[in-house]
Model the fold of this input.
Amino acid sequence: MSLADLPLHDMRRAASLDALCGLVSERHARGEATVLLAGGTDWVVEQELKPPRPDADPLPLVVDVSRMDELRGITVTRGLLRIGAATTYLEMRRHPAILERAPMLVEMARELGAIQIQARGTLGGNLATASPAADGVAALAAYDASIVVKSVRGERRIPFSALQTGYKQSSRAPDEVIVAVEIALPPEGSPWIWRKVGTRRAQAISKVALAGIAVRSEDRVVRLGLGMASVAPVTATLFQTRALVLSRPLPAITADALDAAVLSDIAPIDDVRSTREYRKHAAKAVVRGFLRDLGAPV
Amino acid sequence: MKITLTLNGLSREVDLPPLVRLLDALRGPLGLPGTKEGCGEGECGSCTVLLDGAPVNACLVSIGQCEGRAVTTVEGLSDATHLGPLARCFVDHGGAQCGICTPGMLISAEALLARRPEPSDEEIREAIAGNLCRCTGYQRIVDSIREASRERRQAGGAS
Done:
């Protein structure tokens, strides 16, 4: 462990979001790195596990954003759910609007880690560290969320489908601060699934996790969102699977066609948590489970 | 960096590099070694403390993030000479064996009972799901917390 390096970092707070954007921008222009620290459930662990830093390697400035008001809070306005980037998962799962309108997020937040992790972890942090194993990010993929980012150049929204460009890579510019996520809520009562396959109920990083949300009309699915964690270099949005399900009535969807679509959408690997083969098996099984719930004969 | 926080109900000030872990600040300069280090990476829960009432792993919290906040450690659940009722239940019902997980278990239990005075066994198990114990098999811990909830309700909610 390289705990020794942690106390060497300087830490500041910013007075406002504009001041934060200015600071990040100035440092970026000088080639200096800035880490925006929220709950530390990814970044602090990474630092603790890293080998000691070579002397010549400059340290990033850490800015504590965990209590910045402009990055916190949950609102619903005309069917648009907005969650501040530094809002914790525990705050999310206890919020009345989320309990009422986004039950999938409640279940995801409940299973993403134990309560100690829920009380610290944030969507903004998990988007910034950009692990393809992040449960919260898989849920955002299923909701086709937009990521609100801000810099000295102004604010913009990145559609989820345009966010992730490679393993831990994103289309967010280095000087853009993640402000919030926005979700266009599906009609109340829309079928959803959160299915996490992990070693234990709490505190396990997923071997495979599926987030799904569907809007059904008679025997067809007319809107479908899917997100899957830990099966590809980025959060899988299961594009082929979505296209298949939307293309025909539910009774005409076969297990073979569904399995083939899922396999074409993922590229799992062997790692410490699971194997490629098991992940393929689990991915097919959890998608079939959701489609079965929706009425497909799979 | 000078940091002022409320620790077990008392205002305390420390002067430390801001990214020192809350866990190390507690066990070192703040003189409260009750909080234990297990894994040091947010997995085992043995360093659980309350931060503004919510259970967190003190190994993942920076002391600089505690400015103006309230931290409760296991020492805050008892006084200098007497175990608090929750800790007493762990003793009486076999909830503590080797003791490494116990401070974190007590804090997680305290966080639960503060919100849910009469939790189901399933709620107790969920509340301690982030706290690993390699001795008890958990059943005695669940029994201890259930008994503490009963005693607390009989005493009118006081801890």
User: Anything to note?
Assistant: The interface with chain A takes residues 1, 16-21, 40-43, 45, 48, 51, 54-57, 59-62, 64-65, 108, 111, 126-127, 129-131 of chain B (CB under 8 Å). The radius of gyration of chain B is 15 Å. The helical segments of chain B are 22-27, 85-92, 102-115, 121-127, 139-154. Strands of chain B lie at 2-7, 10-15, 48-51, 54-57, 70-72.
